[in-house]
Amino acid sequence: MFLKSQKIILGVFLLVAVFVWRAVFVGSSGLLLVSFLDVGQGDAIFIETPSGKQVLIDGGYGRQVLSRLGRVMPGYDKSIDLVIATHTDSDHLGGLIEVLKSYDVRTVVENGFQDNSVLLAEWNKEVEKNGARREIVKAGDQFILDNGVSLKILGPFSEDIKETPDKSNEVMVVARLVYGETEFLFTGDIERGDEIRLASSGAELKSDVLKVAHHGSQYSTTRLFLEKVMPVYTVISVGKKNRYGHPHTETLSRLASIGSTLFRTDYDGGITFMSNGRFLSLRR
Ligand SMILES: [Zn+2]
After folding, report:
1. Where in the numbering of this chain does the Metallo-beta-lactamase domain appear (predicted)?
2. Phi and psi of 16, rounded to 5°?
């Protein structure tokens, strides 16, 4: 039996143990963390705010995202606040279905696109089973994730939603994460047309970190768009020796011409950016 004072000491030890355990995983509590997970040919970006709110943007193709999340989240943590599906292609949505099976998700953010595909049927089923709240977003929406941390939705454009698109990537969820003086731009698989519309929309695009659109496809990452974003760092989420030839040499030379530092998940693996609201640091 424990005396009261022993209980208090034990409590303090447990608190310290939990803190150390968290520190091992998230590395730096009180910071905004943005991790580009290596999920092969696909996208998966994990965000943790200074107070611990968690967001996952896309999930790659299959179950790989689960082991990657295990590296940035402690094993006991089986909940995610916000899961964002930029669109319904399998290299973005496939892994999110696996995430829904394994994590308690509070809110799911979608572009609202629906078709008769097996993938979307499974997604709909798993969202329902999970009990997550569904939210369809459009340009102008905003999520306040934490004190001073906001996620501003820049796409899809509302006129595209009204016209009932044929393809999910015509209504891509594009989002800009801002914490103090640091910004991250997440572009999903947008192509030239959407980049030009974004660049002329008047929306603030300037960002320290740009998730290069569509795995470095030649049809994205236009010079005009890059000049608006002016990223210090760029990240291409791409599979080794993928059959699409991503990233394209033309895209790589456009990126080189703006002088940003490039990371590629096929060469560099996952990469985590940390922001204190003023400065960025990174961990590989
Ligand atoms: Zn993709």
Report:
1. 41-240
2. -60, -45
